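In this section we walk through a basic example: taking a raw amino acid sequence and producing a predicted 3D structure, encoded as discrete structure tokens. The instruction is simple. Fold the sequence below.
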Amino acid sequence: MKQNYIESILGGVTLLIALSFLLKFIDVNSDKKSEDYYLLKAKFIKVGGIMIGNDVKMSGVKIGVVSDVRLDKEYFAEVTFKVYSTINIPEEVSIEVSNDGILGNKYLSITPINRDNKNFLKANSEIKNVKDFESIEDQVSRIIFLATQ
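The resulting token sequence is shown next.
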């Protein structure tokens, strides 16, 4: 009889721990309130597989998440992304699509051009200095072309 109480208590503790992990998982992966971020956008000729949910990084640190990818009226790929409100991005930046290794996830990489600039991008601004995605095939063909000249 005593063994059944211990098993019941251990089962309840295990259930509480599993429930707490589930709640933490949901909290980490849920969308934050709209006050926690602001939106920016950039237009690319090729985005190379950027999808909603991909990271936005500056100096290798995650500062936001891609929230929308679509074609605009001129057939450019317009990428809208959220940046955490605690991060101020200088006006003079470049943005490009990067990879985490050869087979890794793609992400948007923002690089400040002038780190001393005290003017920052405001919500719904568009980053104009864009470097389009360059696939491995594009890079290899460029190297072969340079080698044959």
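Looking at the output, two observations stand out. Strands lie at 37-44, 55-58, 61-71, 77-84, 93-99, 106-112, 125-127, 130-131. The chain has a mean pLDDT of 87. In the next section we compare this with other chains.
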